[in-house]
Amino acid sequence: MPGDTFQKKRFIEQNENLRAIQSELPPFCISFFRAIADNTSILTRVNYAYDLRLFFKFLCVEEKIFPHDVIKDFPLDELGKITSENIELFLEYLSAYKGADGTVTNSECGKSRKLSTLRSFFKYYFKKGQAASNVASLVQLPKLHEKTITRLEADEAANLLDVVESGASLSPAQARCHRYTKIRDVAILTLFLTTGIRISELVGINVQDIDFSVNGFRITRKGGSQAILYFNAEAEKALKDHLSGRNAPDAVRGSEDALFLSLQHKRMSVRSVQNLVKKYARIIAPLKRISPHKLRSTYGTMLYQETGDIYLVADVLGHKDVNTTKKHYAAISDEKRRMAARAVKIRDD
C-alpha cells in the first residue's frame, strides 16, 4: 500500500464502501471476496459487489424468481438452483431498469462486464463443490460492437490549450472563475496532452511527487503500483507557473500537499476535473465528446505516430497487456498499411 496520504484515504474509503455493500449480500458471498482479494484491486471488488447486489436483487425482489424479500436471506444451498436462463433474463433486464435516480441502461459492454462478474462468482463456488456447475459460463457474452475512437487532432489539441489560456468563448460566469483558475487549468490540460496520465493518477499527485531535476513525477497506477512519468519543457513551464501561484496556506486540512486545488481550496476531485475538460473541449470540438480519457487517447495517438513503437506506448500509458494498446490504435496501423500499399509501384501509368 503506497505511503501517500491521499492514496491511503482512497483505499480506506473503498474498503468501507465494499464492506457496506457486502453487508447487503448473502453472507456466503464473503468467502468469494476473500478468495479473490490477492488477485484483484479493491476497486474491482467494489464493482463485483455492486454487480452481485444487482443480480440478487433481480432474482429476489424485482422478478421474485426466488422467494426472498431480502437478498441477505438467499441461502447457499439455493445457488445451484440458478439456471442459465435466469442469467439470460438478468442480462435482458439490464437493458433498462429503474434505479434510485431514474432509468438505468447498460450497453453491450456493461452487460459483458456484469456477466464476467457472474462467471467468476459461479466458477469459485463450482470449484468448491458448492454449485452444480458454472451456469454463467453457459451464457454467451454479448457481442461487442466496435466503438469509434474519439480523440483530438493535433491542431485541436493546440487550440484547446489556446482557449484555456485566453478564456475565449467562456460564459460570463465561467470567465469570472477563469481569472483564478487559468494557470492551474493550463497545467492540467498540458499534463493530459503531454504525458497521457489517467485522471485518477492526476488528482492524486502531491507537490513533493514532482522532481524538476529529472522532469518527472511519481504517480500511483491502477492497482496501487507506483511509476515515474516524465514531462517535456512545455509541461515543465506549465507546472512551474502553476506552483508559483498555488495558494498552499489556504488549503483545507488534508489537502495541503495536493498539486491541484479547487476554488474551495480542496484537492480537486475526479468529477471536477472531468467538468473542467468538458467545459473547454466543447468550445474547440463541439461535435466530439471529449473527456480526460479522450485526451489520454490523443496523447497515445500522437506518441505512436511519432515513434511507431506500440510497446513504448503501452508502457507509458500503463497498459499491462499490449493487446489493449493495439486495439485502441488499430486504426493508425490500418492507415500505415494503406500507405505501404501505395508506396511501391512497379510500372508507370
What does this structure look like?
This protein is 55% helix and 6% strand. The protein is mainly α and 349 residues long. It has two domains: 134 residues, no CATH class; 187 residues, hpI Integrase, Chain A. The strands form two sheets. A three-stranded antiparallel sheet has the order 3-4-5, with no helix packed on it. Strands 1-2 form a two-stranded antiparallel ribbon. Helix 6 packs across helix 7. The longest helix is centred in the middle third of the chain and has 24 residues. It is globular, with a radius of gyration of 24 Å. The mean pLDDT is 90.
List key phrases describing it.
mainly alpha, hpI Integrase, Chain A, 2 domains, 3-stranded antiparallel beta sheet, two-stranded antiparallel sheet, 14 helices, 55% helix
